[in-house]
Amino acid sequence: MIKSATNQSQGMLLFQLTLNQSFAIGTLKVKEIVPFTPLTVIPYSHSTVLGAATLRGQTFPVIDMAKAVGYRALVNEEIKDCYIIITDCQRKLVGFMVRGINKITECNWHEIDAPPASLGNNVFVTGVTTVEDNLVQLLDVELLMSKIFPADPSSLNPVLTDIEREILRPLKILLVDDSSVARRQLSQALDSISVPYFISTNGQDALNMMKHAADNNDPFQILVSDIEMPGLDGYELAFDVKNTEKLKSVYIILHTSLSSEISVSQAHQVGADEALTKFEANELIHAMLRGAERHA
Q1: Ranges for the Response regulatory domain (predicted)?
Q2: Burial (CB count within 10 angstroms: exposed 0-12, middle 13-18, buried 19+), residue 105
């Protein structure tokens, strides 16, 4: 096994939604950055969708990111000077139009802090950090996408037999994700089939919970964790679990919003048993059932 390569390869893309505030997303989510390109109107689309762009034969919706997170919407006079951040996220190619691109910077994801109370109820921010003495807000792209492209309800509720449910119910399951929408989806999937679970919002707390449970002879059997998290990311969490003697029997399922074979390959390299591109409830539940078979 190798040590997580995430912190070597995952930087932050800094960009502007307003004149004075800097925002960021992890570079693993970024497929490409292009200057403004003409858009085609999409009838009956969400109010934040500016239209559709076509690049190298692929057509995708373009969202006014400032408007989507509650800032002043773009106007026609400024759009021609804007940039489109193209992301490949949750199995969907989407462009986010922003007022300006600052730069890509290296980032120590362990130094990202929880959003301060002074930011109010801006639920689209998952963390804050400082770059060259400027406050940078890390955006929750999954939550943003869920507001604009709501998931098909059928994808959130798994279907399984009574026998399969009873196989899962005795297991001690830990869900880890820094995104509120992802935690809600994970919780809904297990609540709908009456399978109990524990939940954590970050990797370090999850690792502490697992060690404490193992010390008390009540260990977790299944860990379901996001990959891209500030602090201890999913790769590092999986690596630490597999290299801790009292935890190494845990069945690890990593999930990611990145539609990338690279993410899946890295997940296996650090010791994860499975890696899924989130979110499809039946895929997740059947991965858990494979974990149950391992423990049986």
Answers
A1: 172-293
A2: middle
